[in-house]
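Quick one:
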Amino acid sequence: MIISIILVIIATLVLLTVGKAIDKINIRLSGNDYIDFQIKYQLVLLFSAFLLLFINALCTRSNFWPYLSTGDVNAVAEKMALFVIQQGDRWMPTGLSLCVVITLVTSIFMYFQLRQQAVKWNLLFAGMGWILLFALSNALGEELIYRVGIVVPLQGLLAPVVIYSISAVLFGIPHYWGMPSGVIGSFLAGVLGYVLAKSVDETQGIFWAWVIHFLQDVVIIGAGYLGKGSNSQSA
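Output:
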């Protein structure tokens, strides 16, 4: 149990500190500084995620493979009053509802973070291909670390609510320095982490966690592209 949490903490510290190292790698892959950074960061993230699962599997003898599938996307959900999930609700309608509600909240929050910047909204379409690619990659990497890497090895050792809470805390804290940022951003990320851990546990798969996370990252990475990438030459 402890080794899994330690591995996630180590992966988090690596990802929090890798930014400065990436900036020193003078490799130009496009004409856009933000895109160049994201390409290198996403490669580090995916490598860290799969390395974590490999080490975790060796140390805990956990079987992660079943969770790397869609699982039962219409599994029965346990009650969660915060998101109006009732006992016996199915994950198909629940997941679709969460996609809409959580993405709307994220969009509103990111809009207010961008509001004071002189962003070039017309460049958003030009970068959409990169934004979607990075969102897919970032959501996958973080779900492998903060959901699959926590839920699977801790199943049967702790109560589900405790496992979800661990995922929420370990996912929320680093977002204080990320996007969304600050105390509110960290709190929102923690709540999201709790819900996504619940989805992985109850559906026995990564589908809803990846899809919901992907939609948030489209908004967040899109905001990052507008706030930073649009200030450099468009790819």
